[in-house]
Amino acid sequence: QLQLVESGGGLVQPGGSLRLSCIASGFNLGSYSIGWFRQASGQEREGVSCISHSSHTTVYPDSVKGRFTISRDNAKNTVYLQMNSLTPEDTGVYSCGRTVFGCNLYAGHFTSWGQGTQVTVSS
User: Fold this and answer.
1) What is the pLDDT at residue 1?
2) Terminus-to-terminus CA distance in the chain, angstroms?
3) Distance of CA 32 to the CA centre of its chain
4) CB 100 within 8 A of CB 31
């Protein structure tokens, strides 16, 4: 079964940090660009980062640029999302997906979604 499994979410105060992990099962993660997306309650899924298979390209929306950093360790079949200076607007379920397209933030281009990990930013 081709699957991605996310972990690392939790409750954090505003200004805090979290590191999320996305581990591939059943396929070689190193062959794909991987994207992180989040979905707040009642809202559409939003792309927050993408990294190409070789790590040469990373993409971020303005809303997280300078605060979030995506990285990957293909030997561990894992992609990470380091999130700093978190705000309540960052709250949501964070999921990762893979794409055969070039790195982008369009959810429709991604597959093999995991179940997601909840991130809650609150005091």
Assistant:
1) 76
2) 39
3) 14
4) no
Strand partners, 22: 6, 79
3-state secondary structure of 21: strand
Could you tell me the two tokens for 5? 């499994």
3-state secondary structure of 73: strand
Name the β-bridge partners of 105. Answer: none
Neighbouring residues of 16: CB distance < 8 A, sequence distance ≥ 6: 86, 121
Overall average pLDDT of the 63-92 stretch: 97
Tens digit of pLDDT for each residue in 26-62? 889 889 999 999 999 999 999 999 999 999 999 999 9
**HSE-up of 84 (CA within 13 Å, CB side)?**
6
Q: What is the largest CA-CA distance in the chain?
A: 40
Quickly count: other Cβ atoms within 10 Å of residue 112's Cβ: 19
φ, ψ for residue 37 (rounded to 5)? Answer: -130, 155
According to the model, what pLDDT value does residue 2 have?
A: 80
Distance CA 114, CA 91 (A): 18
**Which residues are paired to 19 by β-bridges?**
82
